[in-house]
Amino acid sequence: MKTYTYFKQEPGDPLPLEKSIFHTVRFHEIDAMKIVWHGHYVAMCEDARMALGDCVGLGYADFFKRGILLPVRQMHLDYLLPLTHGNTYEVKARLFYTQAVRLNVDFTILDEHKQIMTRGYSVQLLTDKNQQVLFERPAFYEEICQAWRKGTLKKP
What we know:
Blueprint: E1 17-24, H1 40-56, H2 60-64, E2 72-79, E3 88-96, E4 102-111, E5 116-125, H3 139-150
């Protein structure tokens, strides 16, 4: 399986942090065409992104308790092949290192045969409670990024 990414990595950047979740398509997730309704894919990706964030200390709760919000700035999905009722699938989320004050995550949805069904990405900004964009990493986020760069961050 060829790895595809939407984000450019700079020389010296650490490898992306990665986490997968697994699920089976339920009846209520399919549409009149008997495939997963396109809107459900966003939730699938969000579930994987949350699982990844929670594993490395970058979950919503980690930011919220410090008064930081994570609005989605961009979300993009390429629907390559449809999932249908009963399909078991994997959603792989990869967080990419960046100097920017944001979270760059790409997603790959694979069927039970590891065939790529959907891929995409999201970009989340960091803001304060008044929704003012932050231009410097909060201290706890900077510490995690430094450990990530040094290779001392506990991998998910």
